[in-house]
Amino acid sequence: MTDPSKVIHVRNVGHEISENDLLQLFQPFGVITKLVMLRAKNQALLQMQDVPSAVKALQFYTNVQPSIRGRNVYVQFSSHQELTTMDQNTQGRGDEPNRILLVTIHHMLYPITVDVLHQVFSPHGFVEKIVTFQKSAGFQALIQFQLQQSAVSARNSLQGRNIYDGCCQLDIQFSNLDELQVNYNNERSRDFTNPNLPSEQKGKSSQQGYGDMYSFQGSGAHAGGFPQMGNAEAIAAAFAGGLPPGISGTNDRCTILVSNLDSDRIDEDKLFNLFSLYGNIIRIKILRNKPDHALVQMGDGFQAELAVHFLKGAILFDKRLEVNFSKHPNITTGPDTHDYSNSNLNRFNRNAAKNYRYCCSPTKMIHLSSLPQDVTEEEIVAHLEEHGPIINSKLFEMNGKQQALVLFEKEEQATEALVCKNATPLGGSTIRISFSQLQSI
What we know:
- By secondary structure, the protein is α+β, with helices and mostly antiparallel strands.
- The protein is built from twelve helices and 25 strands.
- The chain has helices at 19-26, 51-63, 85-89, 114-121, 148-158, 220-223, 232-238, 268-275, 301-311, 352-357, 377-384, 411-421; strands at 7-11, 32-38, 43-48, 67-68, 71-72, 74-77, 100-106, 127-135, 138-145, 162-164, 167-174, 189-191, 255-259, 281-286, 294-298, 315-316, 319-320, 322-325, 337-339, 365-369, 390-398, 401-408, 425-426, 429-430, 432-435.
- Strands 10-11-7-9-8-12 form a six-stranded antiparallel β-sheet. Strands 18-13-15-14-19 form a five-stranded antiparallel β-sheet, with helices on one face.
């Protein structure tokens, strides 16, 4: 048994547990003078003002199992009698402070780009380079400051904080690298000291697997990349580091021909629910002489290109969709045409940049918003489970509003749930559904 100490050792500290959570656990027993998170080991060291305060805390938690965010944590006296500066700098791997930080993003509900990271870290000093990548630990980034003291300041201020309210938590360690090598300036890597780097390797896609890249310079996007679009600023804000692979940004055809539809189960509103993920819908027409074909007119050529790119080959009602640009420039009004130009369900009239960032091919995971405040997870599952086996679900609050993630067994089940249940009533609210790029809950 370790001798009593004013330093308490805490184990099983998951990435979702913040410094503030630990402080709240021990503050009732006295003043806390120091706290060190050992993120790589899922541990923490916490120093009380005196030994009696620490003894009081451990006596209490001998009889009551301490739990944070549903996770049991385990406490004991530390072999340290005092936390030194050296201990506070020992962040999991015993690294010395360094001007390069290794950042892991936990609970990533929103896409994180180089520009987002630069906005978060640059207030602490000049950021020279950023490289992002996907590892088994999740989404990670290496951030190189000009000065070591800037990196130390950023780590001390930002460790355990969320980029967005309730998600995208920062887990920051010092890297053992001396210098970052950046070959391309795009949405995944950036050398702020060398703006003349190419966005991709000549002759083939860039090493991250991204194809055609188009850089935007503020209002210059209006004249250069998208002369036909009034929403160029939103596109520039969403894709500041380059467009998604396979998107040219030069298409001016707004109407799409969709074929191989299940004519017994499809209707215009279901097509609206699917295609409105990629842009505003003007009109939709199911062809009377070919009921497994439909025309969808999008708000502009860029939105149409996103829809064709992300939905080509998607499976809906057990049939693989054919999605191509139509020879018709628009859909004429008539008795068989449904007009959605004034629909308040169109997603791109507000928060267009955010909705562009969420564009992706169908996934197994759907995100639900505009939920009633008193909704339960059971009610959400009951509303959706007719479309296929639900593997997992999670109800959470963001900015004071209830949202949910639901993971289906297959992509086509999630697609069917979105198509059939977007804009349906649940507990007095009209719910919104979109695909989530998260791999797990």
